[in-house]
Amino acid sequence: MAKTASLSIALGILQAVNSAADVFPPLKTVTNAALFVAQTADSFHTNKEDWTRLSSHVQIYVAALLKHIGEDSDPMVDDWKESLLSLDRSLQEIQEKISELRSETFLNRLWRYFKTRGQFVKDLQRDFDDAIKLCNFRASLMTTSEVVKHLQQGDPNKTIELLLQKFKDDIAFDNDCIESLRQLPDARGASWDSSRTCLLGTRMPHLREIEMWIANCITRDTPEILLIADPMGSGKSTLAHSICQEAQRKRWLVTSFFFSRLRREEVTSRHLFGSLIRGFCQVNKGTGDTIARILRDDATLLDASPTRQFQEIILPICPLLPKSVPLVVVVDALDEGCDTELLQILRDGVPLLPANFCIIVTSRPEDSVMSWLEHHSHIQLLSLSLIRGNHTQQDIEKHIHNKFRYPPFENTVFPPQLIQDFVHRSKGLFLWVDVILEYIKPFLHCDQALREIIDSSAGTPAELLDAELKVFALYEQILSKLMWKDKVLVRAYKAFMGSVVTAKEPLSINALVLLFSYDQPVDGDTMVKVANRLRSLLNNFSPGTREEPIRLLHASVREYLSQHIPSTKPYYLDIEECNCVMAKLTLSTIDNEIKAHVPPLGYLSGEWDIDIFHVPPKLPPIPPGSISEQLSYSCRFFIDHTIQSGRVEELAPLWRLHEVLSRHAQAVIELTAAMGSTTNLGHLRSWVKDTFPSTFSKIFDDLDPLLSKYLYDIVSYLRGRVGRQKEALLVVQAARATCHRLVDKYGSRYMLHLARCMNMEGLCLGDLERDEEALATLEEAVKIIEELAGNYLGIYEPDLARALNNLSRQLGVFSRNEESLRHTEKALEIYRRLSQDQPNLYEPFVGWSLVSVAYRLLEMGRLDEATPAIQEGLRIYRSLADRDHETFDQYVSSALHISSIMLDQMGRHPVESIVPLLDAVGTYLRLVKANPELFEPNLAACLGTLSIRFIQLENWQEAFEATEKAVPIYRRLALREPELYEGKLSDALDGLCTCLVGLGRDDDALVAIDESIDLTRKLLEHKSMLTLESHLAYSLHERHLVLKNLNRYGESLRCLEESVDVHRRIFEANPTQMHASNLGKALDNLCALYHSLGRDEDASLIRGEAVELHQMAGDWTRHAQASTGALASQPSIEVFWGYMGPNPAIVLGEKCSRSR
């Protein structure tokens, strides 16, 4: 009776939800499927009881699930949405099976029943139960009677109301995803503009060629970039706007982006990627939803580097993009805003995109751009020039006639010959035409003014063929017309234009006036008047917008005023003198405007590096409006202006420099670190020392003690909190330089601080894989501390132990394991002694040292000694993590990784070593969400080891899934820091190849191993190392196996022969037993392949060499086999594992994994 009542409640819930479930379509399809099962049960007469039972079961459990979702207190319903989608798929499959059965004749169904004894319905119920369990639904663990009871509790109408409201609320939650898109960098004014397109009927041949190139993308195999590289003023940007307009009309345009040298801070590669990601959101709903979810799940991607955004947002959504239409991206003026990271993505990343991507890039043909983009198969050049040819001359004439239709030219009659001369003198430069037309606007007789300019520019026609000279001649004409006898004008011109051309980023007139107010006051109205007179050289200047940044019309204005006119001209600008003025102004601004209440100030009070287990606290952000435009600029650029102010001592702002840094050095360091790039005081010190040696002591004698402390203190933040490794190295090297001078001046008083700086510098060098320098620096740091301590360690013990552990790690990079072990055991002894008195402070360091000792013993094969060390270290870490998991979880994971490697080397079953790895991977996945830059290398290393364990079990799918997750991580890391991670990416690709071979996907395996070999060859071009050579030999061997599987025996043989050649080269360079063994095994494989190809004579020629090598290696089993020819009949299966090395850095919880 109770069950009948529950069935009625269930049916009511299903029908009610089904009729109102438009809010979330899977709700409707799930209830549809459940109702379908109920309705079709009555139509089956065979095993009627089983069908009725299935119908009741499905209705009750689906209704109970919906009730549970409605009553769940968690407002976030993503998990439930995924569960319902999964259940929906399962119910659809069940529905299809039932429909297929219904389509059969009654006799067939009867025959099926007797053959299977009703198993078909039981299988359907089992499939449904499995689907319910996947929903993480606690009712799936209840008995049917308990579910019935649960269903009868409460008000069904209230349940339905709660359920539907939950999914309505989730729509609001999805809106939050959309809101995250709005937080991407937004470059206002960097998109295309219909008012700036080509005049109708102009640039037709160019537009036809571009349109044809875009249309052909559907038949191409790879994406392409079309590069339009023409000189300044040739109309590239106008053409780019027209391309955008046409692509938008055809719904091909994904995004457009217009760089500008005069707006560098507003239109960067980060802004480009923000625009690109927004564009992808508009392609279709699937990509938009996926991107929104990615950004919602990992908010750090909003401010991530373009490389991370390319790898973690753009590449993952590519499968969702349409393949049948062009996807057009237009990037204008690449030379005016690109950086190396963007150029590398265009060169190396674009080929990873779908073939229907069409990326159009315009740029001046500068070497900084062309050297990256020329001569690559996916980058094509526009065949037609923008400045040469009759079509360009005709387009310029149309452009001029169109300009003459509007005020103030519409009532002026320009003789046809004047227009022809104007066209002829332009030599294809639209910029030259536009500047002239802007210039003659105020003249009463525009035609006469134009004739004067044309006649004056006719003197040296050969030179005027050069685009820049033509524009410079025009600037000369404009400036020469001003009243240079007016001393007020000259002074205001020098102040205004001198600051505009030397500014490192554009400043507003308001900021300029305030900059000058502290040292050389200039009236704001006067500055506006000067700007107004020079507006033909400025970009869209308006006298009424004093808060807008002032930008030059073109970068050539600066070049002309400072390099291409005699210094006797009143409008000549001496860049050194202008920089000197700006240096004094910025220093005065810092002195007058820094206030103690700005949040980042005072941050450097803590000595964060003393405890490696605690990441320095986050540097407080600078609230909007808390510092002025001119102060922000001054803190970031006062050093640049000072260094560029010349070598005349009486002019250089050295006295102001000393005064300001004495009072505000700490504040400047804190503010600039918070802004994203710590001021380079080391560069400043070096410049003063080299340029003004007699003045250096006067400035830095009392500054160096302060600078050494502040610079050293900020390094831990840069290195540990935000992963700015290169910046950290520059800063700590500046701190070390100040310490050296302090030691020279004051002796041992500053020796410990010098050793600390060197210890930190060694870590930074190690992060960047500058290993020889790191080792030398760390050895010197240890030597200094030991000399200070003598026979009485006392206060030096903590510093010595830390330095010894860091030195031990670096020695491990060079496999100097005995020395490494000795140092880390000494550190462990010190920490054990310190922890007896201060366990809370030093117990973590005992754990750190124990894991280091275990790892060194593991490297040396002393497993019996390593096991208790790793167990004790892991026990300490687990105890610490129980109290503070945020800090110590990463160290638990490091120890688990080492423990797994140890279990494997002890010969334990791979399953035993997989258990701690899974625990470590799970922790790293969580840590990566919070700080991907810090923990992604460790996650990738763990995944690599996990993949190897599955390979050992021949669980190819699981091995593939682990490696497939590691490879994208290494791709991201290699794009960002190629010198650190390209080798590790190559290792991971080798592992991926092995997994794909195991899955029978030999074609895919060949792609992976080819990429690995290309990367290794590229690395060998820059540095020849035996480890790289060994890796190349292994990869060639693996490629040989793949080609052999594909029956491409000729290529397979060539790969194996090259692998042997590489092994031979390694052995000749370093004839150790290991290298003898590797070469011998390679020769065995080659011998076997020769034999299989019927080349017995070739096989016999190399067999003798292999026998000798096995004897040298002490491998008597192989020696015997090779001597008797037994190996000649063996298949070529020997594998030289290269993808199995653990990471020493993981032991220490460092950011950079270092498997090489």
UniProtKB/TrEMBL annotation:
Species this chain originates from: Candolleomyces eurysporus
Transmembrane segments: none
Signal peptide coordinates: 1-20
GO biological process, one term: cell surface receptor signaling pathway
One Pfam match: NPHP3_N
Stated name of the protein: NACHT domain-containing protein
Domain Nephrocystin 3-like N-terminal stretches: 220-364
Keywords of the record: Coiled coil, Repeat, Signal
Coiled coil: 77-104
Residue ranges of domain Anaphase-promoting complex subunit in the record: 751-787, 998-1034, 1057-1115
Cell division recorded as keyword: no
